[in-house]
Amino acid sequence: MEIKTSQGIHKSKGGLIRSFVATENGRIKEINISGDFFLFPEEAFFKIAGELKGIKAKREDIEHKIEEIYIRENIQSPGTSPADFTESIMKALEV
């Protein structure tokens, strides 16, 4: 049971996205996302991080979950998309 933690950084049109991701057995165990992007409503930020915990650490699964949360929570993020968040997370997972 190996836990791996790494960081990924991605620059979107809306700002820098920094992801710290810990994985265990191919799933996201912990995730922290920060940066200088805007996300409305602000509390949706916690929903994204919270709902990514436990899912498979695979691009398709991550992007699908973020897109689902964007729609359900009516998230607005000028210059930043679910694909941008996914890219930051994938960069952390590739380290």
TrEMBL record:
InterPro entries: Lipoate_protein_ligase_C (IPR019491). It is an enzyme of class 6 (ligase). The keyword DNA damage does not apply. Pathway: Protein modification; protein lipoylation via exogenous pathway; protein N(6)-(lipoyl)lysine from lipoate: step 1/2; Protein modification; protein lipoylation via exogenous pathway; protein N(6)-(lipoyl)lysine from lipoate: step 2/2. This is lipoate--protein ligase. It comes from the Archaea. Keywords: ATP-binding, Ligase, Nucleotide-binding, Nucleotidyltransferase, Transferase. Transmembrane segments: none annotated. GO terms for molecular function: ATP binding; lipoate-protein ligase activity. Its EC number is 6.3.1.20. Signal peptide: none annotated. It catalyses: L-lysyl-[lipoyl-carrier protein] + (R)-lipoate + ATP = N(6)-[(R)-lipoyl]-L-lysyl-[lipoyl-carrier protein] + AMP + diphosphate + H(+). GO terms for biological process: protein lipoylation. Residues 10-87 form the Lipoate protein ligase C-terminal domain.
